[in-house]
Fold this sequence. Notes:
Elements: H1 2-23, H2 25-43, E1 54-55, H3 61-64, E2 66-67, H4 71-77, H5 82-100, H6 102-113, H7 117-128, H8 135-145, H9 151-160, H10 176-201, H11 205-213, H12 218-242, H13 250-256, H14 268-277, H15 282-311
Helix pairs in contact: 4-15, 5-10, 6-10, 7-10, 8-13, 10-12, 12-15, 14-15
Amino acid sequence: MNITKSKNITNGETSSFLLNIKKYKYFYILLLPAILYTFIFNYLPLGGVIMAFQDFDIIKGFSGSEWVGLDNFIKIFTMPNFLLAIKNTFIYSGTILFLGFPLPIILALLFNELRNLRFKKVVQTISYMPYFLSWASVVALFYGFFAINGSFNDMRVWLFGEGIERINIFMDAGNFLKIIFFSHVWKNVGWNSVIFLASIAAISPSLYEAAIVDGCGRFKQIWYITLPSLLPTAIIILILNTGSLIVSNFEQVYGLQNLFIQEQTEVINTLVYRQGLNIGNYSLATAFGLTQGIVSFLIVFVVNKIAKKLSGISIW
């Protein structure tokens, strides 16, 4: 009797699912390209993970290549620059994550306080524009601005006189973290503020009206209404972003490196490129990528657990 009941429930759910697809068929048609894109470029390549456990030979393919077990993973941990790459990746990504994370929230709060709508739209549009530039374009702009005869050195000469020496900040590894951080903020802070502006727009105006009746000024309204309302969104985004702690932006780092500072500024992604893809060692590069993916997932899992325990907010 229970089996019959279970079958009836299953048939009912299937029928409901098919009716739902039929009812919203145009929405599913619009969704189809995104599903295909995700399947082809995100799920289909997962089969290539097998290369991490092989001495992959492009001629022999997956079936003919020799199995080497965990040898590629052992090679990773015994590489001379591996510890430096790990350290640099954590420093660069951690700085971007923890120092850069509050900036979109602050920018969204400032946008929300602007009362001149025309000025607000102009400023918002200007702040979004760098996001649509590729990292190759951003790197080129930074190289042009900080070049020996670029605007940065022209300003120094204008401020301190002709006697001051023109410098190339890209030749000093000590400047690399600042360049990475500020280029990331310049490109992304405006666009990232959109999420928090949307959250602010969803706050009920009645809360602000009640606060005004109670005598709260703008600062107290932000402190007691806006910021607590943004907290769930901020925690979810922070949890998701912690997964990037050991994944640097390859295009940004590789583009801003040069021969003078390459050895001191190596990160995991550039090491994978040079030691793996650049010399055709695809197995080693795959092992790198697999290790990064597993560690990123573990970080997100642990941070999600901590956030759930402390605030009751989590992504699962």
